[in-house]
Design the sequence.
């Protein structure tokens, strides 16, 4: 992998080495050509708390930029406090499915895009692996925009030499592959659940309670959903092993996890519409799932000594 140098002056979001990208994206996402997103070359606002070292890598996915469910402010705050050498965007970053139906792009979503572009411009290697909701970007694999590389999938080697396959994971979802119409129906129902979730948490905030995800709760209470998650994890881990990797990092199912699956390390970085989670690698090779609720809360971790090869 190579790191493309970002522009030194302000530029639009979809500036690329591929001359047809702007026209193609405007065709896929109507209205995008009028949504000019400036990436001002102002000083970066990353803050590294005392005693905390810079992260080797951050993995985030399922932002679903362009939907009301995207928790942009929380992600901005997380990125502000967690500088890294590499940032992996593991699919479903921009939600093309939702934007086709209804255009939604507030300033906070602009701010996130600006932040990602600024990361690339300031020397962080930013890798974008598209998913099913932003599948339009798969047409531009091998190109770069704003210093962000677009790859179908990639690999990451930890400080301890653990080789991880980085892929969104939708190819292991039978609904996506065999009945895409059903996936669209499910997406509509999921958006309805998230809408209820926003109203619920607005009420909880007014009475002084912390954020709680209704959709995540229901997902873990429905037996078929639990079985789907388990089957998905096994399928992705098996394919990673078949390809010669020690483990896999993926997204897609919005369920953050680090666990061993039949001798293969399975890592899912979660999402930023329900759980506000990211997978991070520390300088010593430790892998952790961090839930961001104004401060880092480790919800799942793999110690450094467990990743020796």
Sequence:
């Amino acid at each position: 992998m190579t790191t493309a140098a970002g522009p030194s002056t302000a530029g639009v979001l979809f500036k690329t080495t591929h001359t047809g990208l702007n026209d193609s994206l405007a065709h896929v996402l109507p209205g995008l050509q009028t949504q000019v997103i400036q990436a001002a070359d102002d000083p970066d606002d990353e803050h590294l708390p005392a005693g905390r070292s810079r992260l080797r890598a951050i993995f985030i996915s399922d932002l679903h930029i362009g939907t009301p469910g995207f928790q942009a402010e929380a992600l901005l705050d997380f990125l502000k406090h967690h500088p890294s050498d590499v940032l992996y965007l593991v699919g479903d970053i921009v939600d093309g499915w939702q934007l086709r139906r209804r255009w939604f792009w507030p300033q906070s979503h602009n701010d996130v895009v600006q932040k990602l572009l600024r990361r690339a411009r300031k020397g962080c290697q930013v890798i974008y692996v598209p998913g099913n909701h932003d599948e339009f970007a798969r047409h531009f694999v091998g190109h770069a925009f704003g210093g962000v590389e677009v790859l179908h999938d990639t690999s990451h080697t930890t400080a301890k030499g653990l080789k991880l396959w980085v892929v969104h994971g939708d190819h292991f979802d039978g609904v996506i592959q065999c009945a895409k119409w059903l996936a669209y129906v499910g997406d509509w129902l999921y958006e309805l659940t998230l809408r209820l979730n926003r109203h619920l948490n607005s009420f909880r905030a007014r009475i002084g309670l912390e954020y709680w995800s209704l959709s995540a709760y229901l997902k873990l209470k429905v037996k078929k959903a639990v079985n789907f998650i388990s089957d998905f994890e096994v399928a992705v881990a098996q394919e990673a092993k078949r390809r010669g990797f020690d483990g896999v990092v993926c997204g897609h199912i919005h369920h953050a996890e680090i666990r061993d699956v039949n001798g293969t390390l399975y890592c899912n970085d979660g999402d930023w519409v329900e759980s506000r989670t990211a997978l991070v690698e520390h300088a010593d090779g430790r892998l952790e799932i961090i839930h961001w609720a104004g401060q880092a809360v480790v919800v799942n971790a793999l110690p450094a000594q467990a990743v020796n090869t």
